[in-house]
Amino acid sequence: MSQNPIQLQQMQRADIDAAVELIRKSMNGIEARFAHKTMDFHFACLDHGLNDGRHYYVYRKEGQILGLVGLHNYIWGPRENVWLTWFCVHPDMQGKGLGTTLLSNAEAMARKLDYRKFFIETYDMPDFSTARAFYEKQGFTLAGKIEDYLPNKAGMIVYLKHV
Ligand SMILES: CC(C)(COP(=O)(O)OP(=O)(O)OC[C@H]1O[C@@H](n2cnc3c(N)ncnc32)[C@H](O)[C@@H]1OP(=O)(O)O)[C@@H](O)C(=O)NCCC(=O)NCCS
Fold first, then answer.
1. What is the pLDDT of residue 3?
2. Ligand 1 mean position, distance from CA 94 (Å)
3. Average pLDDT of span 124-143
4. How far is CA 95 from the centre of its chain?
5. Residue nearest to atom 8 of ligand 1 (CA)
6. Distance, CA 158 to ligand 1 centroid (Å)?
7. What does the domain layout of the chain look like in residue ranges?
8. For residue 2, what pLDDT band results from cuts at 50, 70 and 90?
């Protein structure tokens, strides 16, 4: 029987710089800066025994981080809701099926953690057009849109899948 070699591993504090660099390469520098802040915050919370509702996972091959997936349950929000965060695949690896596998692993992880509604926040700007096509192909449906959400006037788009 063949084994699926693509497995997510829990992200470690030592992975922060590589994960942020992956976000910079696959998205942009602004997202990378926000990611750095939230990852620093997450690991600082862990240091103090606090649960900030976030889980970060990496896909590593030969020591290099090629994929990243975050899950975020807002600690003030419904227990069954979870949001996908900082999802990306290294640019050299995109379009080869890795994103599909990582997202399906993330959905399985979300189910295991007892989440039922899997939300995705993305934007209506061209940088994210591939991602939007990708999420629709993965069975996510449009749950809502907020116009003029980002400082550059881009709208926020929310996708949802029941997991
Ligand atoms: C979104 C992302 C994670 C998808 O990962 P991936 O490994 O490229 O995805 P897959 O190879 O599994 O692609 C599956 C489908 O997505 C779509 N897709 C992926 N790359 C595409 C591209 N460059 N152009 C058009 N469609 C594309 C296709 O529909 C593809 O289906 P196909 O193989 O039948 O053509 C990846 O493109 C990425 O990291 N993008 C930059 C970061 C980002 O925008 N993250 C989302 C933030 S909300």
1. 53
2. 6
3. 95
4. 17
5. 94
6. 17
7. 9-162
8. very low
Q: Give 60-116 pLDDT, tens digit per residue.
A: 999 999 999 999 999 999 999 999 999 999 999 999 999 999 999 999 999 999 999
**Ligand 1 centroid – CA 144 distance (Å):** 21
Instruction: Tell me which residue of 34, 23, 119, 129 sits closest to 71, measured CA to CA.
Output: 119
- What six digits make up the tokens of 146? 């907020």
pTM: 0.93
- CATH for the stretch 9-162: 3.40.630.30
Measured between alpha carbons, how far is 133 from 150 in angstroms, rounded to an integer? 21
Q: Are 87 and 134 in contact (CB under 8 A)?
A: no
Q: Nearest C-alpha to atom 48 of ligand 1 is from which residue?
A: 122
CA 100 / ligand 1 centre spacing (Å): 8
> Which pLDDT score, from 0 to 100, does residue 68 have?
98
Residue nearest to atom 29 of ligand 1 (CA): 134
Q: For residue 7, give Cα distances in angstroms to 49, 69, 98, 103.
A: 27, 11, 11, 11
